[in-house]
Please model this.
Amino acid sequence: MTINVADANPPVNETELKTPALTPIMAKARPVPPAPIEPWGQPLDLEARIDARRAEMIAKLGEIKTDMRMEAVEARDKLKAKLSELAHLLKEGVVDGWANLGEAARLKLEHWLAG
Model:
């Protein structure tokens, strides 16, 4: 008994792949994989943890940007101060890149993450 491979797999017409129903699905970017996590739940990479925390703070800042209540104004000021502090720490400590991060800079950044 002979099986013809061409019969089992008919050729695909390129116009079929470009239908409106499939285009949005194919156009989506692949999700960025999360940072590697150690067994006790802590990400391995300090840079990834800082980037995630910074993005979280910026998103929160965007959420409360137009809120004029006193609590929101205070929260915005605190977020801006923390982001400013991070910018200074990064400017001082991450001079030669994350691979050459000194122990003092690493401790300051860990302290910033904890606070």
